[in-house]
């Protein structure tokens, strides 16, 4: 069976994956882009934007695993757009005409709408479904490839709570946000379900990889 994977998911030292005060011009609230500066410096990110350059060390190597073998993505309403996007029937996501996914993407929302076909192979489907049902739909669309769980933190937490995540790459950034949306709330003893490895890099971040223990 295909795996459910989380990649390049950045959190602060106090566990926040996004700050408070999200808005169209501030998708991560008061955190700004600080949680992701480690990734912006990598060759992986430069290539994603069609450019060249960028670092080629461990940050790049781990970030680049993001797309290998992925056939579909699941994301929450908060990743698809800022608060209030559901009130705009013409809203088509935050990535322009050619989003970077190039696969079917399942957006979890309590206000579903018709699917949107974009350039480059991305089609957004809107589901009001619990995690297990959403994963089943995404696996069907992935055609035997893995499914990426794109966030935000509440969505990742829900899938972790149901034991559905096979692999998770969390990047702990040396900053304290103090407020926002945390990843780990309610997941006491999560470490018992995973083998965990940690790698620190010169950029100052710590990469944590979680591999599910299967009985």
From TrEMBL:
Pfam families: RibD_C. GO terms for molecular function: 5-amino-6-(5-phosphoribosylamino)uracil reductase activity. It comes from the Bacteria. Coiled coil: none annotated. Gene3D superfamilies: Dihydrofolate Reductase, subunit A (3.40.430.10). This is RibD C-terminal domain-containing protein. One of its GO terms (biological process) is riboflavin biosynthetic process. InterPro entries: DHFR-like_dom_sf, RibDG_C. Residues 8-191 form the Bacterial bifunctional deaminase-reductase C-terminal domain.
